[in-house]
Design brief:
single chain, 454 residues, Rossmann fold, GMP Synthetase, Chain A, domain 3, 3 domains, 10-stranded mixed β-sheet, 6-stranded mixed β-sheet, 24 strands, 28% strand, globular, AMP-dep_synth/lig_dom, medium-chain fatty acid-CoA ligase activity, AMP-binding protein
Length: 454
């Protein structure tokens, strides 16, 4: 089956395509072409066909190796588990959800779970690929749930394929014959779709490694580059003033400040396309801020309405094929397909555009030997949102505090929490209290908690 880069290949037939001399990925190691990709996927598919376990976790830092592993798992008929981060204790906690970990060399093997490392550079494989049944193959992502434990989100390949078609219908022509760079992880739904699946289905090569610093972005930018990024990094471009061109710039994970959107246009000659969504829903709306408070426009094929609390309800075949999905996003519609976000009504917040469950952070702090009880609140500090912890100490905690002093004791707590939490979710400010302030109904007094950190 010959393939034109102007077309979009469905996930079901991707490995059946012939793309002579087509690049799949690039990096400091050089380019990897289509023939090598097919051979690498074939090699790992053959291995996985002899693997008795069904539920296999995939966790890799290299986007090319991740993609090889992903399609090998699909073609071996496995259920793919995508952990949300690489922290060893977080992976260990999820280990009951999978039987086997497929990773690259950058990921430390788990203590209690069999692992296998992905490799590249294999010779032509004897594997004959068949088309995939998109409805039967499942992928499970994990995100912060309101209960404080990681929440499993089940997706079929059909749902992912529908969303890829939507993305291509909106921006495929703009991204034609470009190369994709990214600052976000492919382990999450946004990076999975924008960094890996849409580019490879559209015939656009993608970068193997993330851009992590503002100067890397401006160094890699050119008129043939699509950048997949987030407000967390785009807000850090304020010290960059050397204009250069980008073909297209995407931002997701949270609303981008208008001043950051304007500065991005000064740098790159284009306004960022913001994408609104979640792990549960995928992308549902977009905007390109030309004014502050510009409404969001719904994706094609997405229906929306408000419930009695003015929270968004959604229906689309890539969200929930069986019916409406209820969000906790309070909104106001300004037209049939445009709305303004008012905020969230649950205890899941965005810190540096990463979704953090305050309940989960409290659970992790509470389980420390030195802490009897805690309350976590978000506070604004020097123009950034951080997490603050009011803690009631155990006797051993009081002893340790006296022994180490506050500075070293806070450092000890943070280091222990990093075994469970991503760095962005670790509290940056602590206050010791005798008890968590409650009102007469037994509810926490947030105003009193906030005063502790003023």
């Amino acid at each position: 089956m010959a393939f034109s880069c102007t077309e979009l290949s469905p996930l079901s037939h991707l490995l059946l395509n012939q793309r002579p001399n087509s690049a799949v990925a690039f990096g400091s190691e050089g380019e990897i072409n289509w023939a090598q990709f097919v051979a690498d996927v074939g090699y790992h598919t053959n291995l996985l066909n002899h693997e008795k376990h069904q539920n296999i976790a995939l966790c890799a830092r290299d986007s090319y190796l991740f993609t090889v592993g992903l399609f090998a798992l699909f073609h071996a008929g496995k259920t793919v588990i995508l952990p949300g981060n690489y922290q060893p204790e977080a992976l260990e906690e999820l280990s009951s959800q999978f039987d086997f970990l497929l990773c690259d060399d950058a990921i430390s093997p788990l203590r209690s779970t069999p692992t296998q490392s992905l490799t590249t550079g294999h010779q032509d494989s004897l594997q004959i690929f068949q088309s995939l049944d998109l409805e039967s193959i499942q992928l499970i992502l994990f995100t912060s749930g309101s209960s404080g434990t990681p929440k499993a989100i089940h997706k079929t390949l059909h749902q992912l394929n529908v969303e890829i078609e939507i993305l291509h219908s909106l921006w495929g022509e703009k991204a034609l014959n470009s190369r994709f760079e990214s600052t976000v992880s492919h382990q999450h739904i946004y990076g999975l779709l924008f960094r890996v699946l849409w580019p490879i289905c559209a015939g656009n090569p993608f970068a193997r490694h993330s851009l992590e610093f503002p100067e890397q972005i401006t160094h890699h930018a050119n008129n043939d580059t699509v950048l997949v990024s987030s407000p967390a990094l785009l807000k850090r471009l304020t010290e960059e003033h050397q204009p250069t061109q980008l073909r297209c710039l995407f931002s997701s994970g949270g609303p981008l400040p208008f001043v950051a959107a304007s500065h991005a246009e000064e740098l790159f000659g284009i306004r960022p396309i913001e994408v609104f969504g979640s792990t549960e829903t995928g992308g549902i709306a977009f905007r390109q801020q030309t004014t502050e408070q510009l409404p969001w426009t719904l994706f094609p094929k997405v229906e929306a309405q408000l419930n009695q609390e003015n929270c968004l309800r959604l229906r689309s075949s890539h969200i929930d094929p069986s019916g409406w999905y209820q969000t906790a996003d309070e909104c106001e519609f300004v037209s049939k397909d445009q709305f303004i976000l008012k905020g969230r009504t649950d205890r899941i917040i965005k810190v540096e555009e990463k979704r953090v469950s305050l309940v989960e952070v409290e659970k992790r702090v509470d389980q420390l030997d030195y802490v009897k009880e805690c309350a976590i609140i978000p506070i604004q500090q020097a123009e950034r949102l951080i997490l603050a912890a009011a803690i009631v100490l155990t006797d051993s905690g009081k002893t340790k505090l006296v022994e180490l002093g506050k500075g070293k004791f806070w450092l000890l707590l943070r280091n222990e929490l990093r075994n469970w939490l991503e760095p962005i979710a670790v509290p940056r400010s602590f206050r010791v209290v005798k008890e968590i302030p409650l009102n007469s109904q037994g509810k926490r007094q947030v105003a009193e908690l906030e005063k502790l950190f003023q």
